[in-house]
Structure formats: C-alpha cells, structure tokens
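Fold it.
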Amino acid sequence: MGFGILGSLQVTAEGTSTLIELPPKPRILMARLLLSANRIVPLPALIDALWDEPPPRTARLTTMGYVKHLRQSLTDSAKSRIVTAEPGYKVVVADGELDVAVFGQLHEEAATSADAGDWDTAARTLHAALRLWRGSPLLDIPSGQLQREEVPALTEMWLQALELRVDADLQIGRHERLIPELRKLTCTYPLREKLHGQLMTAQYRSGRQAEALDSYRRVRELLAEELGIMPSRELQELHQRMLTGGLATHVTPRAARPQSGIKRRQAIR
C-alpha cells in the first residue's frame, strides 16, 4: 500500500494506484494513526483529534465505529493494517510506504553526505526528498488539534530540508538559478534569516554584489521593525565578508568520502 500525509491524505490500494476515498472523521483517524505509524495511539488521543469541541458522551463507541468504517474502506488484504492494541489502535506501515518516513530517511542521508562534503549527492537526495511534498501537510484533515500541533512541526521539517538543499545547490555552483526561488521564499518566510543569508550569497556569487548588500539592508530593517532586533551574528558576519571581499565568489565542491551505517528514520516523532 501507499500512505501520504505530505499534502492531502493519500491511501492507495495495495498493488494499484487507486486512491481510497474516506469521509472526514475516518480521514482524521487515519491521519492521526499515520503520524504515529507502527506505534499504538491511545483511544483518548484519537478522540482529541476527532473532536475540536468537547467530545460527545458516546465518543469512545463512536470512535470505534470510525475504526470499523476505516477498515471496511480498505481492501480485504489490507484490513489487518489497522490493529487493535491496548490502550488503542495502530496502523502497520512497511518501509517505503509512508511518504513522511521516506522523506525523513532521505533527509538524514543527505545530511550525512553534506557532512562528508559530498554536495552533489546531498543535492540529488534532497531534491528527491522534497518532491514527496504535494502541498501543505495534512491539507485536507479537518482537525484543529492536528493543524495546531502537527502541521508546524512538519512544516519545519520541510524548511530545514529546503535550507540544506539550497546550501547544497550553492556549493555546486547553482547560484544564479537559486535567486528567483530565494526571493519568493524570503517573502513567504520573511523572519527566517537563513534564507536571507542564502539569497545574499547567491546574489553575491552571481556578480550581483549591490543586490546582495541591498538584501541585507532590507532584512536588517525588517527585523528592526517587526522584532526590534538586529540580524544574527552569522548574517552580520556574512555582510561584513561581502564588504571586505572575504566571501568567495565561487565554491569548488570537495570530493565525496564513502559512507556507511546510515541511520534510517522509521517514524517522525
């Protein structure tokens, strides 16, 4: 089977590409189980996800009914994926079936490559990882609790991988092509200083030194206006290196070193 939460919820039938349609409450239930794939989710935690307002007195029985509906929506061979296990339920997911677990594994592999200076491999791996994202996570899950408590953490995972991918692309000389993307990202996430620093670096290494310095001026003014603070020390040091010519205008990637024992991420939390 295939399971996806990096966008709208996706559950594909075993051996096919057919999406299984679920009504809102069973969809919330499946999303909550997938967020803790292969681990037991207590019944009270499922109830909290299913109802934003105080749950009805029949919440336990109703939740059990949603579990039954969920099982009935799956193919006969897949019904056993939803397991009853005290004090609740769990969904059984195999390696490679859940998009967020695959994403986490690829992110870790890319970080290992980056630490070794193998920026080409890091870039390829991160581009593959980020293609797993089909939009905002849990996009069609009508649960206030999951939107509040899970979506920010998932979005942060995406941003960290994106920033590392940009670092890798900068290291292998893709400065010019990164500028339009980074301009959009700094508008979308204006208080994320890492992205501003990456934009400045891409501009500087593309021969746009005046634009890079102007980008620093704008982020400095933004932080002062919005938060009443100066840019981070890292951003200030980057700006200083640009002023003194201490920032390289290009980077020669280091040779990769063989890797072994890559840690595999099986769950996201």
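Strands lie at 2-4, 10-12, 41-42, 82-85, 88-91.
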